[in-house]
Amino acid sequence: MIENSLWHPVAQAHEVVDAPLGVQLLDQPLVLWRDPQGLVRVFVDRCPHRGARLSMGRVENGHLECPYHGWQFADSGQCVKVPALPSFTPPPSQCVKAFEAQEAYGLVWVRLATGEELSAAPALAALPAFEAEADAHLRKLNCGPYDVAASAPRIIENFLDMSHFGFVHEGWLGSRDATAIEAYAVETTATGVLATGCKAVQPQSNLHSTSAAEVEYTYEVTAPYAALLTKLPESGTTRAGWRESIALFICPVTPETSRVWFRLAVADFDSPDAQLQEFQHTIFCQDQPVLESQQPKCLPLDPRAEMHSAADRMSSAYRRYLRASGITFGVC
Ligand code: FES
Ligand SMILES: [Fe+2]
Fold first, then answer.
1. Cβ atoms 304, 176 nearer than 8 A
2. Which of 2, 50, 71, 280 has its CA 20 to 30 A from that of 321?
3. DSSP per-residue letters across 81-128
């Protein structure tokens, strides 16, 4: 499955401490823990002895200890201790499956690739707006997680969609009096899809708006379950000269459920985190009920399965990209 070779966000980095944390990615229960060197380790969340959940255990002497009979696993997944047999040295075959993890954008990212899949695995998308050096002047913070009863592709498509603003976000990102979507350009990129010239009139486009603003955005799909919104510097919604961004990162938990984070790169250095998060929270809580109502929950990739208008050309391009990428999880 191609999804196994991609990096997916699974938790906020600060949540992963020296106590194990259970998460789920692509239907696979995983346990995350931090080794004594501070590195995040990821194993299948199932003890190979009698199937207990390792995330119910603890970290003991730098090893992950199963809650049932206390078998201990080193950072490689190798079993190093069987308490019932103190003088026994477990063979290499006595191990739990381990995966790769890395930290980026305030999150822990995991990929389930093993063996040959690893050579085909692409790197985690580099997002210049969020790199420490490239845009060090912008303030970055995360919002979430949100546990959503919708597939990851439905959530990405909602993020790329402007024609719902006047209805779902009436009085905030749009109004019923101005629902027309001007033509915008869509192109494919090396890693996804890019829409430019996306214009809207927004009554309350950010925390500090005091009047309606004409905004211009670019939307980019950077990976099958990741997207980026960039507000153009001349856009009425942001401080002159500042290029603010919002990234959407989704963990595909099951085909029909997802865990969602937003990462903001903003030029607002004064408002408390909670206030910036509250604005994003308000907007997403408007989206969530509609998203969860959509049927089917998985995103249909057959162009005939749902009806489209010319205003939907970004979402149509996203669907074509998913199909061309061989994505099967969260689509139908
Ligand atoms: S089930 Fe894990 S040690 Fe027995
Ligand atoms: Fe929305």
1. no
2. 280
3. E-TTSTT----TTSB--EEEEEEETTEEEEE---GGGGGGPPPPPP-G
Protein residue whose Cα sits closest to atom 3 of ligand 1: 69
Q: Does residue 122 have a cis peptide bond before it, meaning omega lies within 30 degrees of 0? A: no
Is the CB of residue 14 below 6 angstroms from any atom belonging to ligand 1? Answer: no
Distance from the alpha carbon of residue 25 to the mean position of ligand 1, in angstroms: 23
Q: Is the CB of 83 under 6 A from ligand 1?
A: no
> If you ran DSSP here, which 8-state letter would residue 142 be given?
E
Per-residue pLDDT of the chain (332 residues; tens, 9 = 90+): 899 999 999 999 999 998 999 999 999 999 999 999 999 999 999 999 999 999 999 999 999 999 999 999 999 999 999 999 999 999 999 999 999 999 999 999 999 998 888 877 788 888 888 876 555 678 899 999 999 999 999 999 999 999 999 999 999 999 999 899 999 999 999 999 999 999 988 888 788 777 888 889 999 999 999 999 998 866 555 555 678 899 999 999 999 999 999 999 988 889 999 999 999 999 999 999 999 999 999 999 999 999 999 999 999 999 999 999 999 999 99
Q: Cis peptide before 300, with omega less than 30 degrees from 0?
A: no
For residue 81, give the ligand nearest its CA. 1
> Looking at ligand 1, which residue's alpha carbon is closest to its atom 4?
69
User: Whose CA is closest to 228, among 323, 126, 310?
Assistant: 126
Residue to substitute in 60, 68, 81 for testing ligand 1 pocket (most ligand atoms within 8 angstroms of CB): 68
Substitution candidate for ligand 1 out of 49, 73, 94 with most atoms within 8 A of CB = 49
C-alpha–C-alpha distance, residues 14 and 316, integer Å? 37
Question: Ligand 1 centroid vs 134 CA: distance in angstroms?
Answer: 47
